[in-house]
Amino acid sequence: MTLALLGFALGTVWASFTQAALGRIAQGQSLGGWSQCDHCQTRLGPLELVPVVGWLWLKGRCRHCQGGIAVQYPLFEFCNGLLLALAVWGQTPAWPLLLQLLVLQGLIALAYEDAVRGEVPLFLVFFCLLAAGAKIYLTGSDLLHPLTSLLWGAGGMFWIRTLYFYVRGQEGLGEGDVSLLGLLGFLLGAEALIPLVFVASLAAALFSLLQLARNTKGLQSQIAFGPWLIGTGLVFLLFPAIPRGLALGAG
Predict the structure, then answer these.
(1) Residue 12 lies in domain
(2) Are residues 10 and 65 in the same domain?
(3) How many domains would you assign to the chain?
């Protein structure tokens, strides 16, 4: 229980840092310096920077200029804290667990970047691959199957993307989706790829239908598929019985 609470706290702090760091990198700013209000550039106080609690205390507004603070910030922090709490629940602290948490945080950062900016930074993909590879090495497992699964994932998505472009004459999937499915193949195994794509596609389609139902003018922008792939992959990582059951059901 104590480890889960610590995981939740660290998850919220890391999510807060991730949002700030990725935002600064995207704008070409330095990672150093104190955080400021996006509206009035006033330096934020220590309590304002506390994940989730700071946003609730401020009631979602800057106390200096009353500018609105997007709810995505505390929501992302809370969800990431919950993810880490679930990941460490009942676990014993060890290097493989730490490396697994680094992989999870890399995936969360990738999902955030794709959802907010429509980008899949390759340095984050390589970060996840290195952390996952180090975990496999420490546990004495074989690297051949993960590497083969990476090729199946990336290669399969590449040909799906190419076929879609050939049939429709336009891009339907981004280049980042190719690297994401390769990464998820490395993490989950080739046998989980078909259930992964099926569940992610179904979730994205349902979300699109909900958007269409709420907006009579139709979809106003393209929906990023990466967050749905990663979200499904995170569920599969935390609950390995789900992809195994889906694969057996499909067979």
Answers:
(1) 1-92
(2) yes
(3) 2
pLDDT in tens, 6-52: 889 998 988 888 888 877 777 777 666 677 777 787 787 777 788 88
Whether residue 74 is found in the same domain as residue 126: no
DSSP annotation string for 119-168: ---HHHHHHHHHHHHHHHHHTT--SHHHHHHHHHHHHHHHHHHHHHHHHH
Q: Tell me, yes or no, whether 154 and 48 share the same domain.
A: no
Reading phi first (left if > 0) and then psi (alpha if -120 to 50, else beta), residue 30 is in beta
* 6 half-sphere exposure, CB direction, 13 A CA radius: 10
Q: List the one residue out of 107, 73, 47, 120 whose CA is nearest residue 238.
A: 107
pTM score above 0.85: no
Tell me the average pLDDT across 99-123: 89
Residues 6+ apart with CB under 8 A from 1: none
Same domain, residue pair 35 and 134? no
**What pLDDT is attached to residue 207?**
85
Instruction: State how far the alpha carbon of 67 is from the alpha carbons of 49, 53, 71, 124, 162, in Å.
Output: 16, 18, 13, 32, 45
Say what the pLDDT of residue 129 is: 95
DSSP letter for 68, please: B
Q: Is the pLDDT of residue 219 over 60?
A: no
How big is the chain, counted in residues? Answer: 251
Same domain, 132 and 59: no
Statement to judge: residues 150 and 160 lie in one domain: yes
Neighbours of 44 (CB within 10 A): 16
Find the mean pLDDT for residues 211-240. Answer: 78
